[in-house]
Amino acid sequence: MQSERHGVVIGAGTMGTNLARLMLRRGMRVTVLDVNAAGLARCHKALQEEAAFSQQARFVTAWAEVGGCDVVVESVTENLELKQQVLAEAERHIDVTTLLLTNTSGLEIDALAEGLAHPERFMGAHFFNPADLIPAVEVIPGPSTAEDSVERACDWLRELGKRPAVLRQGVPGFVANRIQHALMRECLALLEQGVVDAEALDDIVRYSIGIRLAINGPLRQRDLNGLDTHLNIARYLYADLENRTTPGPLLEQLVADGRLGRKCGQGFHEWPEGDAHAYERRERALLERLLAMMDDAEE
To answer: What does the pLDDT look like over 191-212, one tens digit per residue?
Structure first.
């Protein structure tokens, strides 16, 4: 069913492409805006498989080609100055009632809002990749964001099948990235100390806490285990946990050696040519199955 809503995605990279895919699958008209014609062409090609593509998707390089819209999601490179410029340009071309969202992973919302004429309709909407699959979206109001704008944004996200989670205040990295980096800090320390190798560490996390976190989340899981038990363990364990305030030498060395992960063929694991795309397809299929099971469990 086609929606009357028109969404604009600024940025035709991986995240922008998946945001456009999400909107198309939910029946929205979508315009993808990017000044990089080559990136726009890749996005165009990636979305041609969508059923609603021909009627509802447009790809443009200038605001003059956009027209009226209901929601704008900025999803360009995670650079404060660039995002400020892109957001200011967007504001010059949209109606004052149009929601203006930034898909930042952790930049301060009040800093991004500097110079905006209507910060009351602006906020962060942190999607997680692949954005067309992962349900959670962190919604981060700025100091000037109107409550009505937050409610409208959450309503729109629910229309897209998302689970908006509104933060009461903005902190660096928001919630998910703070937890993710705390986890990775301990993982890197364990690797550096020779406690475990990369493959075994991944297996331990995937097949123990990873499964339980997907089902319960960390706080409900602690409730199930017993907070007294957690407190007793915390009393003797916290002193031994990694608490460095700068990235560790292992991560610095991997990056210096060009071992950047899947995109370079090597990271913590080896990624032979051709395996990366096959793994991505497998990952999406597993995510879809997991989410379907989680949805069934909630019914």
So the answer is: 999 999 999 999 999 999 999 9
Compute the distance between CA of residue 80 and CA of residue 251 in angstroms, rounded to an integer: 24
CA distance 165 to 21: 21
What would the two tokens of residue 266 be?
């090597």
Helix (H) or strand (E) holding 200: helix 198-205
Instruction: Give the global pTM.
Output: 0.91
CATH T-level fold of 175-248:
N-(1-d-carboxylethyl)-l-norvaline Dehydrogenase; domain 2 (1.10.1040)
Determine the distance from the C-alpha atom of residue 268 to the mean position of all C-alpha atoms in its chain, rounded to a whole number: 22
Helix residue ranges, H only, 95-197: 109-112, 147-159, 176-192
Given this structure, which CATH class describes domain 6-166? alpha beta
Closest CA to 104 of 172, 48, 157, 182: 172
How many CB atoms sit inside 10 A of residue 19's CB?
A: 27
What is the per-residue pLDDT for 1? 47
Q: What gap in Å lies between CA 84 and CA 112, rounded to an integer? A: 5
- The span from the first CA to the last CA of the chain, in angstroms, equals 24
